[in-house]
Amino acid sequence: MVSSVPLTRAGAFFLAAFSLALGSAASRAETTKPADPKPVKEEGGRYYDVDGAPTYNIKPDGQVDWLTYSGYRRYHAECHVCHGPDGMGSTYAPALAESLKTMNFDQFSEVVVGGRQNLGGGNDRVMPSFGLNKNVMCYLDDLYVYLRARSDDALGRVRPAKRDDKSKEITDAEKACLGE
C-alpha cells in the first residue's frame, strides 16, 4: 500500500538507512556550522531554517513547538543513557549540545544513521548505527530540533512546560513511518 503522507527527512533517511546500516561506507564530510536557527518556513507544525533544515520555534512565553517537545522525550528515551541528560555529555559519549554547534542536519543524520568510530589514542568512542531503529529514525527531525535548541541555549535543561499540540500532518507522518 502506498501512503499519500509526504515523506519527511526522517522518513527519507529511514528508507536510505538500510544500505548505510549494512556497511556501505559514506564519506565523512568536515563539519559545517548549521544556518541561523530562526524559522523561515512552517509546514504542518514543522519549522525550517533558511537552508531547509528542521529547526525549533520557541515562543517568548517558553512554549515550544511539537518537534522540540517530542525531541526532548525521544532523546531521554533513546540517547541520554550514553550522551547524558539534556545533551550535556558523559564520560562515555560527547555532549551533543556542543556537537550541534558545528554539525548541520545532514551531518547529524549521517552519524545517527550510519554510526561513527573514533578509535585511537586511548580515547576510543563508538556510536552505533541507529539506521534500523524506528524509535530513532521516525523521530530524527525531533531529536535534531531538540538538540539544536539546547545547543543554541534557546531551551534549558528541563522538560518544556508548555508545548504546541501535535498537528495532523505530524501524526500522519509518524503513523506512516511506524507502519501503522
UniProtKB/TrEMBL annotation:
<dbReference type="GO" id="GO:0020037">
    <property type="term" value="F:heme binding"/>
</dbReference>
<dbReference type="InterPro" id="IPR022411">
    <property type="entry name" value="C-typ_cyt_methanol_metab-rel"/>
</dbReference>
<protein>
    <submittedName>
        <fullName>C-type cytochrome, methanol metabolism-related</fullName>
    </submittedName>
</protein>
<feature type="signal peptide">
    <location>
        <begin position="1"/>
        <end position="29"/>
    </location>
</feature>
<dbReference type="GO" id="GO:0009055">
    <property type="term" value="F:electron transfer activity"/>
</dbReference>
<feature type="region of interest" description="Disordered">
    <location>
        <begin position="160"/>
        <end position="180"/>
    </location>
</feature>
<keyword id="KW-0732">Signal</keyword>
<dbReference type="InterPro" id="IPR036909">
    <property type="entry name" value="Cyt_c-like_dom_sf"/>
</dbReference>
